[in-house]
Amino acid sequence: MAGNVKLVKVRCPRCGERVSWEGNPHRPFCSEKCRLIDLGRWAEEEYRVPAEDAPSEEQYD
Asked: Is the pLDDT of residue 31 over 90?
């Protein structure tokens, strides 16, 4: 490691393992396995982004 270069470590959002950010092709995940598990959860609608109800057509008139 040259000079004051600091390696950034982050926690995998799925399993919590600490992994290097730089050079990690799966970031923010630790591995392809964790990345695919997370993607599957989104596809199965296990995760949801809170949103307001869409306005009805009557509100536009």
From this structure: yes
